[in-house]
Amino acid sequence: MNVCEYIVTRHPLGNSVTEFWKVVWDANSSLIVCLSDQNLLPFWPDEVEQTRTIGWLHINFARMDQCGDSLVRFQFLLTSDREDYALACTLLHFNAWPSIDLENPHESRIASDLLELATHLANDNPEFSNSSAPIVLVDK
Question: The Tyrosine-protein phosphatase domain covers which part of the protein (predicted)?
Answer without folding.
Answer: 5-140
